[in-house]
Design goal:
Number of strands: 0
Structural class: mainly alpha
Number of helices: 19
Low-confidence stretches: 390-403
Strand content: under 5%
CATH class of the largest domain: Mainly Alpha
Number of domains: 2
Radius of gyration: 28 Å
Shape: elongated
Helix content: 55-70%
Order of helices and strands: HHHHHHHHHHHHHHHHHHH
Distance between the termini: 76 Å
Length: about 400
């Protein structure tokens, strides 16, 4: 039997397995934020971790010590797509109707059932199978015939080329639908695809792109490598995904605790913000925005503004979301757009580019500025500057805010 070994690729993937396990545990156990989304992401990462573990063991020959695990992950590929789709739905689509949409998991279940006769074969048969796939079959070793169990060996389930074609086609289909859901959701909210106001919606297309990159790498190595020799590079691509997700969430820790935007109203159902307190806070907030212009700071956050007003972040968040009927990003951006409009009408700023004016008024992203301007002004910044007149619906920003 070939001896197990470790090389630099194996070490990268062993570390990837460890990273994948840690990420899976974190997302499956975190108690705050959108728990449904976190659990789905945890399951997706767990499935990828199991796949990388299988590929690592097969590549290094350690699988020969646990032959019962040989080829046990073939069905996992059919579950990646539905998990990506469900994860997207919990953040940017209509709620998942689990009573009927669990049917998305049936192809993977069918593949797992069809391979049962293979799993019941002798360890010697499965060892010869995996060694042959990696071109490590021992010269002169006796052939091990398969035992007739159920429909085997006449039918061995979906395998080889057609298994890869169907599983990858399914995955690409789910990604197309997922990106479509994100696009529709951001358009409905008048926000740019890559820079939505909610942190989870900003992260979602980036995570999807990371997973899609892994999928493209898997397709390339599957159809260009000889037999299963390219699988270690697929595992390496998955390990890179683990490292990328870890880095992103370390730099954006708020994502673990961010809920769906639609969950804001339930969040405040038991709040102690009395009507008279809300009225006083609203007056202080609007007065402070008009006099101090904190929105000119591109790094302004809700906690910072709450500290300036000497109130709690929770009460200020409730006032903005319920009392004024907008989210915090829209509330601030309305003031910024008002300031941009004033400068675009002022001949003293005629020599400045529109982007320069946007950066002066607190925007730090061109795409976010353009989307916000079109949302609140009804025209593009260039169209507004060309007209050069005051639109009827304009007024002080606080007059445009509902409530």
């Amino acid at each position: 039997m070939p001896a197990p070994f470790l090389d630099w690729l194996a070490v990268i993937n062993l570390l990837g397995v460890v990273q994948g396990v840690l990420l899976s545990v974190i997302f499956l156990t975190v108690r705050r934020g959108n728990r449904a989304a976190n659990r789905l992401l945890g399951l997706l990462l767990l499935g990828m971790t199991v796949l990388v573990t299988d590929l690592f063991l097969s590549y290094t020959n350690y699988i020969l010590y646990v032959p019962a695990l040989i080829n046990t992950t073939e069905a996992v590929g059919f579950w990646f797509g539905p998990l990506v789709y469900f994860y997207t739905r919990t953040l940017a689509g209509p709620p998942v109707q689990w009573r009927r949409e669990w049917l998305h998991l049936l192809p993977g279940l069918g593949q797992a059932i069809s391979r049962i006769p293979f799993y019941l074969q002798s360890n010697a048969y499965k060892v010869r199978d995996v060694l042959g796939a990696f071109h490590r079959d021992l010269p002169g070793a006796p052939r091990v015939p398969g035992e007739p169990i159920l429909w085997f060996p006449g039918f061995d389930g979906l395998e080889g080329f057609w298994l890869d074609v169907l599983s990858f086609s399914s995955l690409f289909g789910y990604f197309v639908v997922g990106f479509g859901l994100i696009r529709r959701h951001t358009r409905q909210r008048g926000e740019p695809f890559w820079n939505a106001a909610a942190p989870t919606l900003r992260a979602l297309p980036r995570l999807m792109t990371l997973f899609l990159t892994f999928l493209v790498a898997a397709v390339v190595f599957t159809f260009t490598a000889e037999d299963d020799l390219g699988d270690i590079y697929i595992a390496t691509a998955a390990s890179v995904v683990f490292y990328g997700i870890t880095f992103y969430f370390l730099t954006h820790p708020e994502l673990l605790h961010a809920a769906r935007p639609e969950a804001a109203r339930k969040k405040y159902e038991k709040s102690a913000l009395a009507p008279e307190v809300a009225g006083s806070l609203k007056e202080r907030l609007l007065g402070y925005m008009a006099s101090e212009k904190p929105y000119l700071d591109s790094e302004l956050t809700l906690p910072q503004l709450a500290e300036k007003l000497r109130t709690s972040t929770h009460h200020l968040s409730q006032l903005v979301n319920e009392g004024l009927g907008v989210n915090f990003a829209d509330f601030i951006n309305q003031y910024r757009i008002g300031a941009v409009q004033e400068k675009l009408r002022d001949p003293a700023y005629g020599h400045l580019k529109i982007e320069e004016i946007a950066y002066q008024t607190g925007f730090n992203s061109k795409s976010t500025f353009q989307a916000a301007f079109k949302k609140f002004a009804g025209v593009t910044p260039s169209e507004y500057r060309k007209k050069g007149d005051r639109r009827p619906e304009e007024g002080r920003p606080e007059e445009r805010i509902p409530g």
